[in-house]
Amino acid sequence: MSGTVTAVSRNETYSFTKPNRDSVTLLAGLGVEGDVHAGVTVKHRSRVAQDPTQPNLRQVHLIQEELFEEVRVLGFEVKPGDLGENITTRGIDLLALPVGTLLRLGDEAVVEVTGLRNPCMQIDNFRSGLLKQVVGRDEAGNIVRKAGIMSVVTVGGEVGPGDRVRIELPAEPHRPLERV
User: Fold this and answer.
1) How far is it, in rounded angstroms, from Cα 92 to Cα 4?
2) Which regions in the chain score pLDDT beneath 50?
3) Beta-carbon-side half-sphere exposure of residue 125 (alpha carbons within 13 Å)
4) CATH of the domain at 163
């Protein structure tokens, strides 16, 4: 299984969206070089308020570009970086990957999938009503989160648009993604 990186984004300051870049550098154990969420311990404000010593399982945020098309037909214009992701992909059902999946990005970089992004109210501040489109319930009443996945960097390297994404599934039994 493989896909493609369509955009990369980072921001040095706390803001909801992240500007697209020509490339980003992933640093093993830290995240995206120069990104406000890079670090060994949590950097997301709500997580820091709970316990600033927690490990950072949210170093790199990935979203599948297909989500933008899904919400576009519902009247929401969303582009790469708009939802705060670092890496936008195409051709991979990121939400279906199990915990521990390795994503090889480009020639060198590798990230390990840790879980689902937990969408927050900032999404509605960005586009009113969008939160309902990226988090909802399935027929059985289970919460479905579609705002991307989180990962940690296991091998650093440069990543840019057009880079191939190769998937290595962990040994079975696979654990489904949960929010992190």
Assistant:
1) 8
2) none
3) 9
4) 2.40.33.20
